[in-house]
Amino acid sequence: MLQPKVAAVILNTNRRDDTLACLETLRRNDYPNLAILVLDNASTDGSVEAIRSAFPNVEIISLKDNRGYAGNNNVGISAALARGAEWVLVLNEDTLLAPDCISLLVAEGERDSRIGIVGPMVYHADEPNVIQSAGGWMDERWQAGHIGQNETDVGQFPYPRDVAWVSGCAIMVRSSVINQVGMLDERFFYYWEETEWCVRARQKDWRIVHVPAAKLWHKGVKRDYRPAPSVAYYGVRNHFMMLAKHHAPPTAWLSAWAQTLRTLASYTIRPKWRDKRAHRDAMWRGTVDFLQGRTGKMPTR
Fold it and tell me: Do 66 and 203 sit in the same domain of this protein?
């Protein structure tokens, strides 16, 4: 079996314990040709010292400024390519991998030279048999979501299959895809960036495949996940940005505007959503910032 070089890229910002736990699962993985890069975003919790002590073979790259999920990970992706990685695995620091996860992802990716992106079965860490993402879907209106979300895994996804996108908490990309379509779009800063990356890859006829036998557990999102107002901001603004970047059809624009205006109205008028006023304000700010062409980090004004 071919064993191309894989580089795992992990972004850490004051998440010492989560990052150490993730690295421990990588140490136990059965794939032999693996390099690990940790991007440290000015952590003050002793992360760097703890990683160097427990995992001396892990390369640590200190980030000079915070460029968001997209920009920060691009530093690691660039470093991985410079070190000869044939596949780059972008991992959240709060993920835990099964020992054969990487081996199974590589085996599927190498099965067909047109497979450009692969992703594992992602489970909720607090409910180890409940699916968080079995790949992503995108419909004709350019609305997107996770396949199988919050379903108990009873074998309903038995085989690898093509999907529209895979979760950014664990996305493995062939180096030739990155060389052709570019890295993550830093203007997005956070949210929708992995979906947009996959859109670019599919536009160049690369296949994106979900590999259910490759298993991973993600702590950051639970079944009752309630996103912060900032997620509402990035979700609205970046969805519109993606539609604009890829010249989405009128039906997609109508759907996005209808959904946004309906949610804004509901959060404003309906008493049961009184606790969503901060989300409403963030959505409105995201909408205005899109119209004004503002990208990158959410303003703090």
Answer: yes
| pLDDT the model gives residue 272 | 82
State how far the Cα of 63 lies from the Cα of 81, in Å rounded to an integer.
17
Task: Indicate the helix (H) or strand (E) that contains 178.
Answer: helix 175-181
Query: What local confidence, expressed as pLDDT, does residue 221 receive?
Result: 85
Cα–Cα distance between 102 and 27 in angstroms, integer? 12
| Mean confidence (pLDDT) of the chain | 95
Whether residue 260 sits in one domain with residue 148:
no
Nearest alpha carbon to residue 145 among 156, 133, 131, 162: 133
Same domain, 145 and 285: no
User: How many domains are contained in the chain?
Assistant: 2
Please check whether residue 108 is in contact with residue 135, taking contact to mean a CB–CB distance below 8 angstroms.
no
Which is it for the CA torsion 256, 187, 233, 291, positive or negative?
A: negative
Instruction: Write the CATH number for 43.
Output: 3.90.550.60
Residues 233, 98 within the same domain: no
pTM above 0.90, yes or no: yes
